[in-house]
């Protein structure tokens, strides 16, 4: 497995592989890899001749009061996990080369970025779309892999790829969970034991909503209320949002009809966790 | 010469040429071709195995009160000129396929788009950067050709290509002028005979400024005043802007030191003409 920092070296590697007609899979991450990332890597290794993993804690997707500086990092462990999972090349660029002095260009996906996480994390998805567009241009993959846990991010990327006519297939992979149901996230490492215990309520409330829908409850106000009641029964949980929206447009719906998305963002202390599920009749 | 309307057909053609290792040159235009466009095509034909010409009057770069609907079009003549000049394939997409229902993604180059034409044509460069990014992704060229007449557009594209790590070489070509000095533009066709005559003052005032700089006048206020005096001596000329800025950043300067850009936008009736020159000591 190769480790590359420089953009030009990365482009050279890709161009060489392209001239050999290798198919390229790409898994963009911010590192501190967990089983969720590994599942994306494994899918890519299965689908492609070459798998590129990027590890880049992207400053432009963090707000001024967010956790950029303390975002967890462990490059040595990441490299060892990536190697085991079959990655061919790790791209680990410097922020100073990704965003040099005078940098001025941003990709913005309008509308679907104003809901959910976009409403409370201003500029977050502009940072995500921009860095993913850059990484796509550098790594020029045939396929790119994203987790369904970041459902809104996935929709933003799909919209960007369609709109900008980018020739990359976006593959979404199911959320990977701990055995007790907590969705895997690099931010789980922030949780105290007590918070970790109470955080189980996220996945439990998703199950509750699915059950209610199965039993015929399709009213969004009622469903949201039931989920909210369950979550706020946990004394350490602070609701950022609990929303049921159209799964494609992320716009509000009043009834669960086709595919709806139940999306949660809940804080435990300073840690903000997200989770989601699709509700369908 | 081939004419293609559909994005997928265009991508297929490009992918076939790429697999043959053909080098691809790309000339994006809004059609109504003149000698300025032809000079770009000729340069591309010289530099590349294959030349793609796009003809697309891009709605997102026109403001609500601008000339989108009456922008001059003459596809038959364009095709004949393109064919003579050596174009291999003309890409002439439909606006409805470039911007389908639900379209939401825009590329914005900040800062350098707020000066000059960006100040009076709000959203113009966002539309330009977005469509060029899309066309680059569809046509995937090795080199793309732009005229220096649209100097700010050229700087916006260069900045976008650098910032988004797009692997395309941007080639800028000198402004082509009528024998009397008027910069070639599709919009020249709007001018009445009298306006056409008075519009010569644009290139004449650029010459004046160059002469003044050669004779030692480096003060931007004095230079701008001289140019302004000459232009406003034409009764039909209405100044949109007359500015001398840093040629890279397009930010104001007070002295001509390194490379400065003298840029003009002047209206004659409803027709807005631009021209520019580099001033250097």
Summarize this entry quickly.
Helix content of chain A is 38%, strand content 22%. Chain A folds into two domains: 172 residues, HUPs (Rossmann fold); 95 residues, Pantoate-beta-alanine ligase, C-terminal domain (Pantoate--beta-alanine Ligase, Chain: A,domain 2, 2-Layer Sandwich), CATH 3.30.1300.10.
Explain the overall architecture:
The structure is a homodimer of 281-residue chains. Chain A is α/β, with parallel strands linked by helices. The first copy, chain A, folds into two domains: 172 residues, 3-Layer(aba) Sandwich (Rossmann fold); 95 residues, Pantoate--beta-alanine Ligase, Chain: A,domain 2 (2-Layer Sandwich), CATH 3.30.1300. The first copy, chain A, is built from ten helices and ten strands. A six-stranded parallel β-sheet of chain A has the order 1-4-3-2-6-7, sandwiched between helices. Chain A has a three-stranded antiparallel β-sheet with strand order 8-9-10. In chain A, helix 7 links the parallel strand 6 and strand 7. In chain A, helix 6 packs across helix 7 and helix 9 runs antiparallel to helix 10. The longest helix of chain A has 16 residues. Chain A is globular and about 55 Å long. The N and C termini of chain A lie far apart (46 Å). The mean pLDDT of chain A is 96. Chains A and B meet through strand 5, helix 6 and helix 7 of A and strand 5, helix 6 and helix 7 of B. Strand 5 of chain A pairs antiparallel with strand 5 of chain B, so a sheet runs across the interface.
